[in-house]
Amino acid sequence: MSERQPQVLDIEQIIKAKAGKNAKYIPRFVINWFKKFMHLDFINTYLKEGYMGVEFCENCVKYLNVNIEIEGLENLPKDGRKYTFVSNHPLGAIDGVTMGWILGKEYDGNIKYLMNELLMNLKGMAPLGIPVNKLGGQSRNLPRLIDDLFMSDAQVLMFPSGKCSRIIDGKIQDPPWGKAFITKSIKSGRDVVPIHFMGRNSDRFYSLDKWTKRLGIKLNLPMLTLPSEMYRSQGSTYRVIIGKPISYETFDKSKTHTEWAEEIRRKVYEL
Question: N or C: lower Cβ tally within 10 Å for the chain?
Fold first, then answer.
């Protein structure tokens, strides 16, 4: 059991850090509204417990009273090799926390995955995460971070869509998956384990995404609602289906890496 590190999330400081020189123009009522919208008291009540890493993930699931049904647990390899675990990303928050718990528990906490900066503000998640800036532009260091991640001794979890599911062609599904997990799995000799996480966010989330696109807003506004979506998930039941490992040698030159990524995406939704 790791040493606890209690935390109180200061949204005002985070907003000011993001806004930079423009912070002084943000009205107090906007900050107060944002605290209420994010259910900050509810979040901080949990953060004060100070759980770290896998314990943070496990106890967060319990705190939210979320029920997780797992199918295919026997498909998680136990041969001591390093693998790439890839999952769809329907929720954007609780799915990442849940996978951190499931895989972290199975592999003694030796699990790493890319996290947006919102999650990295949670001290308890930091031991499991590699930070990626999704609020603004993509991190210039991302290619190097991914290289280091795949060449490490950790099990790697990726959400290849890079952001949580949206309504596409009338269905809630991930945007096209990036090819990095294919390229890096081949280079590092990691077989790929597909995982299907079954769940959805509120109608409000998808409506905000639609209007953000229609108005041409560049900021990822739906991401800012994810703490509220997690709050709303209390008492929910989600199903996680783990598929059999796919050898990295499968990804031959009969398809491009982008095509192989889409093939694995399709297999995930078929689980």
Answer: N
d(CA 267, CA 265): 5
- Which structural domain, as residue segments, surrounds residue 231? 53-270
Q: Alpha-carbon distance 38 to 137, whole Å?
A: 23
What total number of domains does the chain contain?
1
CA distance 7 to 5: 6
Is 263 a member of any domain?
Answer: yes
Cβ contact 268:194 at 8 Å: yes
Taking a C-beta distance cutoff of 8 angstroms, is the pair 240, 198 a contact? yes
Is residue 33 in some structural domain? Answer: no
Residues 6+ apart with CB under 8 A from 261: 160, 176, 177, 178, 179, 181, 182
pLDDT digit string, tens, across residues 71-119: 999 999 999 999 999 999 999 889 999 999 999 999 999 999 887 666 7
User: What is the CATH number for 188?
Assistant: 3.40.1130.10
Model confidence pLDDT, tens digit, residues 189-245 = 999 999 999 999 988 888 888 888 877 766 677 777 888 888 889 999 999 999 999
pTM score: 0.89
